[in-house]
Specification:
By secondary structure, this protein is of the alpha+beta class. The protein has helices at 9-23, 29-38, 44-56, 81-94, 97-119, 156-182; strands at 27-28, 60-65, 74-79, 120-127, 132-141, 144-153. The protein folds into 2 domains: 9-117, Orthogonal Bundle (Arc Repressor Mutant, subunit A); 119-182, no CATH class.
């Protein structure tokens, strides 16, 4: 089901707040864009404008990762207290139930995949102070960090290799780290 093409600005903003809220995970810019374009809610340019205004208005918080010009920055959006409060006050009056149902269905169909991507992360950042790269690898469960590693390396290639290896072998590496740290030393 596609949404009607005519929504007010407040409805577009509420759709975005509702989506981020119901997902119960930080949503990347790419995931939000995919949903908005798939359902033909608004144009890409309208989305960019609305996201920007919602971050400036403290309805969404934006956190940037992979601050690397070659690969691009990944931005994740979180609902702020102000965003949640606004959503609670306005959702019933301005966001029709059929629209919410479409969002609910999308989230139910995609939450497991998105959650899996969020539970294991690896991102790298250039460290301008010493011309190194810092890699952050993490394992998360229910918004709680189980493990976060920060590794400094000399080259972008090393950072990318760590990022790729972590993403492809997270479970194995996590188990190995826990085993090493919990075994008594002889």
């Amino acid at each position: 089901m596609k949404f009607p093409s005519q929504y007010t600005d407040i409805q577009k903003k509420l759709i975005l707040l509702y989506l981020v809220n119901i997902m119960e995970l930080p949503m990347s810019h790419g995931l939000i864009t995919d949903f908005i374009m798939l359902k033909e809610i608004m144009s890409y340019y309208d989305l960019e404008e609305i996201i920007s205004s919602m971050v400036e208005g403290d309805f969404l918080d934006a956190v940037q990762e992979n601050a690397d010009a070659e690969d691009g920055i990944t931005t994740h959006y979180y609902l702020t207290e102000n965003g949640l409060s606004t959503l609670d006050k306005l959702v019933d009056d301005f966001l029709p139930r059929p629209v919410r149902q479409v969002i609910d269905n999308y989230v139910n169909e995609n939450r497991v995949r998105i959650k899996k991507d969020y539970e294991s992360t690896a991102n790298y950042f250039p460290n301008v102070e010493n011309n190194e790269f810092r890699v952050k690898c993490g394992v998360y469960e229910d918004k709680r960090a189980l493990l976060e590693l920060f590794i400094s390396v000399d080259t972008r290639e090393q950072a990318k290799l760590i990022q790729t290896n972590w993403r492809e072998n997270t479970s194995k590496m996590y188990q190995q780290i826990i085993e090493v740290l919990t075994n008594p030393t002889s």
